[in-house]
Write a structure and sequence with these properties.
mainly alpha; 14 helices; about 65% helix
Length: about 400
């Protein structure tokens, strides 16, 4: 039971597949506090930089709207045209500020989670209408975090607002002593600075909420060990099935190899541990080629097939070991074994001539010499292999 509970715990980090699936579903880390802070900061910065121009244009539109001549009073078309011009002036004055705010609203999601548009997020989810789920969300850890953020925002913004009002009190009172044009520009400057100061307090919350949302997102997508294993099976295939496929491939390769044994000219054996079938076609091959090889049970099967098809079998342990170690199926024999294999083939061809009564029975080669560095059991070959391995590691 304890093992099952341990397996059910989400202790594994989300895989790339799970992260991509969540992204396809429109689920990415988002910080509303960071987005709100970015948009409000853009609005405050725009108000501070462009406020004077906006006030001047609004002042011009107000004066123009309240100044009516005789023609405008008695001609509705002229009056409507004048109103349209004034409204256009106000809109053009506010357009840069609106553009800054809109750009900030579009780019702010890219700060965490990147830009994403998913149609799945727009699909209706009736599970959200479940009262039980809604009640669970109200008393969840996330709800407590949101409550904490709301209280922190209220306290911080309220404290900063109190400081701003206290510091700007004399400047606001002094506006009454300034001309309308100067006072308007001064007022916009005060409002911009005050607004930026209060929004700056939200930056503290945003700086905390951003990393928290990334951690919460990663924690939410964590996987159990069983889910990791299941995903690995779905992605890479069931290991048992893959092992079965590899076994079938080996058996098919073995059957193809056995089918080539009857075409060989000779099978060189160890005599029981190794068996290597060689074939040579004069004028068609540069050197004798290995058509089959195997050890133990496979070697026994090669000898059995060779005997059934009357392929010559010759016991030459050093040569068999060297061929098995230094060649693969379809390879030509190494140059260092040319002399030894030539001696074997000469015996085989003489044996064929004897069977056709064209020559005397040849003597079986008693000792076929193999270069020391090509015999796997020779101490010199073992030492050379160790040296080559060390060089590779270096």
């Amino acid at each position: 039971m304890a093992a099952e509970d341990s397996d059910a715990e989400r202790t594994e980090q989300a895989s790339s597949k799970r992260l991509q699936q969540a992204r396809d579903d429109g689920d990415v880390p988002r910080s509303r506090e960071l987005a709100t802070f970015t948009v409000l900061m853009a609005a405050g910065g725009g108000l501070w930089m462009l406020g004077d121009g906006i006030v001047q244009n609004l002042n011009h539109a107000m004066v123009s709207g309240l100044s009516l001549d005789r023609e405008q009073v008695y001609n509705a078309d002229v009056l409507l045209n004048r109103i349209g011009v004034d409204v256009g002036t106000v809109l053009l004055a506010c357009l840069p500020l609106a553009g800054m705010v809109m750009l900030a609203a579009i780019l702010s999601p890219m700060l965490i989670g990147g830009w994403l548009f998913s149609g799945k997020a727009l699909m209706p989810n009736f599970g959200k209408l479940n009262p039980a789920a809604g009640l669970a969300n109200m008393i969840s850890t996330n709800a407590l975090v949101e409550l904490g953020k709301a209280l922190a925002k209220t306290i911080l913004v309220g404290f900063v607002a109190w400081l701003v009002v206290k510091s700007q009190k004399e400047a606001v009172v002094g506006l009454s002593l300034e001309s309308f044009r100067v006072a308007s520009a001064h007022l916009m400057h005060i409002l911009g600075v005050s607004f930026l100061s209060m929004v700056g307090a939200l930056g503290v919350i945003a700086a905390i909420d951003g990393p928290y949302q990334m951690w919460h997102y990663a924690d939410k997508l964590k996987m159990t060990r069983q889910e990791v294993i299941q995903e690995a099976k779905e992605s890479d295939g069931n290991p048992q099935i893959k092992a079965k496929i590899r076994q079938m491939q080996r058996e098919m390769a073995k059957r193809r190899m056995m089918a080539d044994v009857p075409t060989a000219d000779v099978v060189v054996t160890n005599p029981t541990h190794f068996a290597v079938a060689l074939k040579y076609a004069d004028g068609k091959m540069g050197a004798p080629t290995v058509v089959a090889k195997g050890a133990d049970e496979v070697a026994a099967k090669i000898r059995e097939v060779a005997a059934a098809h009357k392929v010559a079998i010759l016991e030459a342990p050093p040569l068999a070991r060297a061929l098995y170690t230094h060649t693969d199926i379809g390879d030509e024999i190494p140059e260092g074994l040319y002399t030894a294999v030539a001696e074997v083939l000469a015996y085989v061809f003489q044996l064929r001539a004897f069977s056709e009564r064209r020559a005397e029975r040849p003597d079986v080669p008693k000792k076929i010499e193999v270069p020391a560095l090509l015999d796997p059991q020779n101490p010199a070959a073992i030492a050379a292999a160790i040296v080559n391995k060390n060089r590779t590691l270096q």
